[in-house]
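It is worth pausing here to work through a concrete case rather than discussing structure prediction in the abstract. The textbook approach is simple: state the sequence, then state the predicted structure, then interpret. We follow exactly that order.
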Amino acid sequence: MGKKQYLYQVSIDALEITYIMSDEMRNFLSSDDSTYYLGEKKEIILKRSESRYYKNEFIIWCKDWNENRGIYNRIVGYMRFGSFNPNRQNIYITYDNEALYSWLVSARYYLEEALDLEFLQISKFDIAIDFNFNVEKHLIRQYKDVSYDLIVNGYKADNKKVYGVGFLSWWNPRHRIFANPQMVAKNKKSTLTMKTYNKKKEIEQESGKYYIQEKTGFNSVMYRVEITCKNHKLLKKTLDALGISDEYLYVHLDDENVLLTVFSHLLDRIIHLRKNRKPINILDEALKDL
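Step two, the predicted structure:
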């Protein structure tokens, strides 16, 4: 990532993991009880919630502690099983966004043990890189540089009419892509997406996720480049190309280098540059002189 004369933080912004559960635990959690207490000290709490798509859906809480609140309960994520869709018959845990920016994902092994779970695969996976400067304008400038070929979803783009990249319009001439200075690139089914935006502004005006700023420390300026991968089949294609197994990525969810490697490959699949037949990562190229 260039000469690192800037600061960046790599984060997992969305994570769904598919598990297998023992029949004994599945039957136990399929009873009519509204709340279950699990773990050595009953610090894992499952609270049943209503669902239109699953017979069993729970909010997962756990015990936590800080100086201001002392011991308190916080949400880890959401567990679902018993889908009415015959193709989704495993156990699915979606981690809460705030939990992803805390220590809680590192406690996933304890959660598995308490719930008698066996890891199967990562089914949804979003990776974000936050920067302490306006990375967006550098990406847009690189995108507009016609000395490079532009490859979008595996095909060389026509500079006069680029499909698959845009914001308010889905095709644009390459030299003036944005009605709003935000870069969005997607595959045809919108299941693999890259976007850039002013994350500080989004937090202040929309999401209120100030815990992200607490993690990054970027309080004055924060711009984000984010990859959204909506299903396991898409992610598996990248893992296979990199020679990485689902288990390896799962074990290394806290490893910045592994996350950056996966991020870069996913980004290249959506959009990259080419010069003299050589493929070039558009983000690396935009940052190379910084």
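Step three, interpretation. The chain has a mean pLDDT of 91. The longest strand covers residues 117-131.
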